[in-house]
Amino acid sequence: MARKTANDVDSSLKIHEKMCEERWRTIYKKTDSLQASVDRMKLWLLGGLTTIIVSLLTLIVKTAI
After folding, report:
1. Does pTM surpass 0.70?
2. Is the pLDDT of residue 19 over 90?
3. Using CA atoms, how far apart are residues 39 and 45, in angstroms rounded to an integer?
4. Cα separation of 24 and 29, whole Å?
């Protein structure tokens, strides 16, 4: 097995860095997409919870009157 030179290692590291940079870019895009989906779901859940609470309060007030 031939011994690697500093230039070989440098070349390998540059290739590795470019590949990792592209992988991280892809991961960040997917993470941003997932975060947007989670934020939309949180809004729907908050809206549903608000509807349930308002409905229950309306029933309590109507029953009390």
Report:
1. no
2. yes
3. 10
4. 9
